[in-house]
UniProtKB/TrEMBL annotation:
EC id: 3.4.13.9
Protein name, as recorded: Xaa-Pro dipeptidase
Domain Peptidase M24, chain residue ranges per copy: 178-439
PANTHER family on file: XAA-PRO AMINOPEPTIDASE 3, XAA-PRO DIPEPTIDASE
Amino acids binding Mn(2+) 2: 255, 266, 433
Known cofactor(s): Mn(2+)
Gene this chain is encoded by: pepQ
InterPro entries hit by this protein: Creatin/AminoP/Spt16_N, Creatinase/aminopeptidase-like, PepQ_N, Pept_M24, Peptidase_M24B_aminopep-P_CS, X-Pro_dipept-like, X_Pro_dipept
Pfam families the UniProt entry points to: PepQ_N (PF21216), Peptidase_M24 (PF00557)
Length: 454
């Protein structure tokens, strides 16, 4: 068995994968019964071509399709699910001398294949239409209008999609194995990024080191890697890679993951450079300690909204300890001061999408959406935690001028030491992010396991 096979959860966790597929079949059968359906058809997606060009944009398969078929990047394929039958996978693998076509899975190379009827499509054609009432899930806008009519299908029924989204919230043993491997690969990249930073590399050098160590192409990462030196660390989704290293090396923030069969890791680390102030080093230590205390509180039944608000209270305490803000923590939270230093949420669900679905849907029966608390609109997860949920915990603290300037111009600014703020500004900020799975009595930290070295 090759090294790549040893790290392939579809091979090393074949029994768990079979159980995962069996649970999916059962869940879909319940959904079909409840929505009076005879079949559900999933489309894997279709690449989008750049305007007036002959090149396609980077492509990712539809997540509900990947929930069944662990072939990330498979396009123009279909999965037909019926009650009591093996799903039929119409797999598009054209005869093509321009590109390498997907390999047809067999039970020898992919044990999951025996759970499917597999039909080889050499051209992008429609599947055989199932009898009865059919729902079609996927990015319908990609398909020609006649496709939906020819399949006589209900396109993306809202209630059904919401129910299937809910079915992705708690992860199976197989999914956790994929997330664990994705975290391990990302950790290798983070350690290589830190080494390159310490050796004086530019943002591009750090990005290339990350990709090499995590064994990924840039088009394979689950989201665009964030590699920010100095003040760039305060741009939350910084999207560039400077070619030249800055003269002063205050800080590095790397927010980057990896993907295994579509399951994403999402890890962030901040490091101090040779030119960092002691205050910035203390900020990193404080945010990391804060994060570990929040992680220690994770368990089924914990309200994630309460955790988010606790993060803000603890951030207020840290800012006060460092002398940046003189107000008590509760007053900082109430007056929106901590929100200016950390405008994003504490974290989110993690899975086949980096910001996975159903983070704000606590009850599939009523469908009611629980919105974030006032003053915290960017919180993506508002649920009570359950066993099997995969989540991130990512507190941060940043010097973002456009958010802090309004504080300077009103009464709140009297309680802020602007000299310390200006001293921290060249460092950008701090974010520490781990990936965790909620267990029956706590949480499994996929990021800080002994294997990752983080």
């Amino acid at each position: 068995m090759s090294d790549s096979q040893l790290n392939d959860p579809t091979l090393t966790h074949a029994a768990a994968h079979r159980a995962h597929l069996a649970a999916l079949q059962s869940g879909y059968e319940v959904a079909m019964q409840q929505h009076d359906l005879d079949a559900i058809v999933l489309h894997s997606g279709k690449p989008k071509r750049h305007f007036a060009d002959d090149q396609d944009a980077s492509f990712k398969s539809h997540a509900h399709f990947l929930h069944w078929v662990p072939m990330a990047g498979l396009s123009d394929s279909w999965l037909v699910i019926r009650p009591g039958e093996r799903p039929t996978l119409y797999l598009y693998a054209p005869d093509d001398f321009w590109h390498l076509s997907p390999s047809l899975p067999t039970p020898d190379t992919a044990p999951w294949a025996e759970q499917f009827e597999i039909v080889h499509l050499r051209k992008p054609t429609l599947p055989q239409r199932p009898e009865g009432r059919v729902a079609l899930l996927g990015e319908i806008a990609e398909l020609q209008p006649q496709v939906v009519s020819e399949l006589e299908a209900l396109p993306n029924p809202v209630g059904l999609v919401r129910q299937l989204d809910e079915g992705r919230v708690c992860k199976s043993e197989f999914e956790i194995a994929c997330l664990e491997e994705a975290s391990l690969r990302a950790a290798r990249g983070h350690l290589a990024a830190r080494r390159t930073f310490m050796e004086g590399g530019a943002e591009l050098d750090i990005q290339l080191a990350y990709l090499g160590a995590s064994r990924q192409r840039e088009s394979d990462v689950p989201y665009g890697n964030i590699v920010g030196l100095n003040a760039h660390a305060a741009v939350l989704h910084y999207q560039h890679y400077a070619l030249q290293a800055p003269v002063a090396r205050h800080s590095l923030l790397v927010d980057a993951g990896a993907s295994v069969h579509g399951y994403a890791s999402d890890i962030t680390r901040s490091w101090a450079g040779d030119d960092a102030l002691p205050l910035y080093r203390a900020l990193i230590e404080g945010v990391e300690a804060l994060q570990k205390r929040l992680i220690a509180r994770l368990a089924p039944g914990v309200d994630y909204v309460d955790l988010h608000l606790e993060m803000h209270r603890e951030l207020g305490e840290l800012l006060r300890e460092l002398g940046v803000v003189s107000l008590p923590a509760e007053d900082q939270v109430a007056q929106g001061i901590t929100a200016a230093f950390c405008p994003h949420g504490l974290g989110h669900l993690l899975g086949l999408q980096v910001h996975d679905v159903a983070g704000r849907i606590p009850d599939q029966t009523t469908g009611d959406i629980r919105h974030p608390p006032q003053g915290h609109p960017m919180l993506r997860l508002t649920r009570v935690l359950e066993t099997g949920m995969a989540i991130t915990i990512e507190p941060g603290c940043y010097i973002i001028p456009m958010l802090l300037e309004p504080l300077r111009n009103d009464a709140r600014g009297e309680h802020i030491d602007w000299k310390l703020v200006e001293a921290l500004a060249p460092h950008g900020g701090v974010r520490i992010e781990d990936n965790l799975v909620i267990t029956t009595d706590g949480a499994l930290n996929l990021t800080r396991s002994p294997a990752t070295g983080l």
